[in-house]
Specification:
Blueprint: H1 6-16, H2 23-35, H3 38-54, E1 56-57, E2 64-65, H4 71-74, E3 79-86, H5 89-96, E4 103-107, H6 126-133, E5 139-143, H7 148-161, E6 167-170, H8 186-194, E7 197-198
Parallel strand pairs: 3-4, 3-5, 5-6
Antiparallel strand pairs: 1-2, 6-7
């Protein structure tokens, strides 16, 4: 792909560095921005800069948030006795899109994977145990992708939480083994949350 402008090439390189965007799509995006008023492009750039500078992790659940506590944790209508444990933010969003879960969340920030050098101390596990030890939480739903690493993580979490005396459940197997939650359709994922079952490690 030949460019008459180094600035356009740099813009294409920037967009193409994003996941799922090839150079042709990146060029289309760059040319689209160039057709807009300069103010539109400035607002676009400013939105990205502000997001990167000001986004933070919720101090309670590790969701992404504008404030110290995310909107879900701050919502007094949510059932705080019910916590859904997820691997990442995308899984949290996928479950929220089902409109079937009215509890709160806990984002682990990954799953245990010795091959990739990720152990329990690399995840938000101690903070989950600390939340459960406060006595408010009655049930923890393990909504983790059903892979070997995911099952290992669920087993480890169950062993850590069982002495506290909290009910531990896992999402129903409407989600195929080896699949990722973020790619499950909303109906299947919603039914899996509603039809969760007790976890027996």
């Amino acid at each position: 792909m030949n460019f008459s402008s180094t600035l356009i090439e740099n813009g294409v390189d920037a967009f193409a560095s994003l996941p799922g965007i090839g150079r042709k799509t990146a060029l289309r995006l760059v040319l689209h921005l160039l057709k807009q008023d300069k103010l539109v492009t400035e607002q676009f750039s400013e939105a990205l800069v502000k997001m990167r500078q000001n986004i933070r992790e919720c101090t309670e659940c590790f969701n992404l948030s504008d404030e110290a506590v995310c909107r879900i944790c701050a919502d007094q209508r949510r059932d705080r006795t019910l916590v859904c444990v997820v691997e990442n933010i995308r899984d949290l969003m996928a479950i929220e899109d089902t409109n079937q879960f009215r509890g709160v969340y806990h984002v682990l920030g990954g799953i245990i994977s010795p091959i990739e050098g990720i152990g329990p101390t690399d995840l938000n596990i101690d903070s989950l145990v600390a939340r459960c030890e406060k006595g408010v939480i009655k049930e923890v739903v393990m909504a983790i992708s059903p892979t070997i690493e995911g099952e290992t993580t669920v087993f480890y979490l169950a062993k850590k939480l069982q002495p506290i005396g909290i009910q531990i459940s896992s999402i129903a197997r409407g989600v195929a083994f080896g699949g990722d939650l973020e790619y499950a359709d909303e109906i299947t994922l919603g039914r899996s949350i509603v039809a969760r079952m007790p976890y027996n490690g």
